[in-house]
Specification:
Length: 300
């Protein structure tokens, strides 16, 4: 989903009739037929969008990727839910609000193009990816392949497994920009050995915005019995795609980046056939082994 599409979708929520959002909705069609460059220069359009946010106009913030300001309508909803939660927490949080996670799961799954039973809601991309990274059974000597431009926390996670489980992390390098998508693909292919068990890479890197040929790498990995984890922190909702365009086994992303969802939200996609063997980061009962909700057993 693109920002423009998101703004239109967000403004379609009947319950959220804030004037600021109505103004953004009214402005959105004016850039429909224009190039991003033309839209970027239209100060009248951006003034209308600005009204949907509460950002400090004294600061020029160029990092909306790491964490995005939530639109006012999202902040209002969070405040409303927080107040409602505190009315009678054991009832309002557990009995009323918690079951509503299922409608969020269904809508996120529809947007990503997967079965809701493959969609776990997490607190961010770090948690989603670490569930996959720490939850796959690996033996000493097993190899994990990633790049030296992957996200530092995700590399740290594999390095901790190196110390703890004696696995081996191999990091490939690539020039920026790379000569071609095929060149990126071949760098992974060349680095595979008989001990490679996992390939972990970014859909789009945070450092340079390099996009990877995700589907080609994932399908090559699968044909060799290697699992593919894709870090989608900067891809989801920045440009349109569905799971079928990626064909990965695991996909982790934050929702507080390009989707402009509340801070502290993310999702983990796990291919259905992989759920049972993936350990949750926080313990869940054996009866939940094949249940995607085992990754959400984090307490209150
Ligand atoms: C590529 C990449 N992966 C993972 C993350 C972690 O995201 P979060 O801090 O929302 O968990 C980030 C954060 O910017 C990122 O850029």
């Amino acid at each position: 989903m693109q920002r423009r599409t998101f703004l239109r979708a967000a403004t379609g929520l009947a319950a959220l009739k804030a004037d600021s959002i109505n103004r953004a909705r009214a402005a959105a069609p004016s850039v429909n037929d224009r190039t991003p460059e033309q839209a970027a220069r239209d100060e009248d359009f951006w003034r209308e969008i600005q009204q949907a946010f509460t950002v400090d106009r004294n600061i020029i913030n160029l990092n909306n990727g790491g964490v995005c300001p939530s639109p006012k309508v999202v902040q209002d909803a969070m405040r409303r839910q927080l107040e409602f939660s505190n009315v009678a927490p054991a009832y309002t949080m557990w009995t009323v609000l918690e079951p509503e996670i299922e409608s969020v799961r269904a809508r996120l799954a529809a947007s990503f193009g997967c079965d809701p039973e493959e969609m776990a809601i997490t607190r961010n991309a770090s948690e989603a990816l670490e569930i996959a990274q720490l939850g796959i059974d690996l033996k000493p000597g097993d190899e994990v392949l990633t790049t030296d431009q992957d996200y530092p926390r995700m590399i740290t996670t594999w390095q901790q497994r190196e110390r703890r489980d004696s696995i081996k992390l191999k990091m490939i390098s690539f020039p920026t920009p790379p000569p071609s998508m095929d060149d990126l693909y071949q760098r992974f292919e060349r680095a595979i050995t008989p001990r490679t068990r996992v390939i972990h890479f970014c859909h789009i890197t945070n450092l340079t915005g390099q996009i990877f040929p995700v589907k080609k790498i994932c399908q090559m990995a699968r044909s060799r019995g290697i699992e593919a984890i894709v870090d989608g922190a900067h891809a989801y909702a920045q440009f349109p795609f569905k799971h079928e365009d990626l064909d990965c086994d695991y996909y982790g992303t934050s929702l507080h980046k390009w989707l402009l969802a509340p801070h502290g939200t993310g999702f983990l996609y796990v291919r259905k056939s992989k759920i049972e063997k993936l350990w949750p980061m926080m313990a869940a009962p054996a009866s939940m082994n094949a249940n995607i909700r085992k990754f959400e057993e984090i307490g209150t």
